[in-house]
C-alpha cells in the first residue's frame, strides 16, 4: 500500500518533460495553476511544483502533503490523467477545504 501511494508522485525527468508537453491548463487561481495531461502509466499521478518563493520549507511541505492527500482520498488517480500543480505564494493561506474544492473543480471541467 505504501509503495503505491509513493508512486503517485514519482516522476523521472523525461516523464516530467513529456507531461508538460501534452498538458493543458484546466484550473487557475492566484495561488496555483492546475495542468492535466494524459497518463503515461497504468494510473494517474500528481506532480507538485513549489519554489522557495512560495514560503519556508514547512509551509511548502504542508501544501504538498495536503494536495497529495486530496489526490489519494478522492481517488483522482483513477481518472486517467496526470496532474501538474504549480504553487505560488498566494496558496499558503488556503485551507484544506479550499484546496480540495479547487482540485475537484479542475477535474470536473475535463
Keywords:
single chain, 110 residues, alpha+beta, Ribosomal Protein S5, domain 2, 4-stranded mixed β-sheet, 4 helices, 43% helix, globular
Description:
With 110 residues, this protein is an alpha+beta fold. It has a single domain, classed as Ribosomal Protein S5, domain 2 (2-Layer Sandwich). A four-stranded mixed beta sheet has the order 1-2-4-3, with helices on both faces. Strand 1 and strand 2 form a beta hairpin.
Q: Topology, pairings included?
A:
Layout: H1 2-7, H2 13-22, E1 24-29, E2 32-38, E3 46-49, H3 57-73, E4 81-87, H4 96-109
Parallel strand pairs: 3-4
Antiparallel strand pairs: 1-2, 2-4
Helix pairs in contact: 3-4
Can you summarize this structure?
Helix content is 43%, strand content 22%.
Give me the CATH fold name: Ribosomal Protein S5, domain 2
Widest sheet: strand order?
A: 1-2-4-3
How many domains, in number, for the residues? 1
Q: What's the overall geometry? A: globular
Strand content: 15-25%
Summed over residues and divided by their number, the pLDDT gives a mean of 89
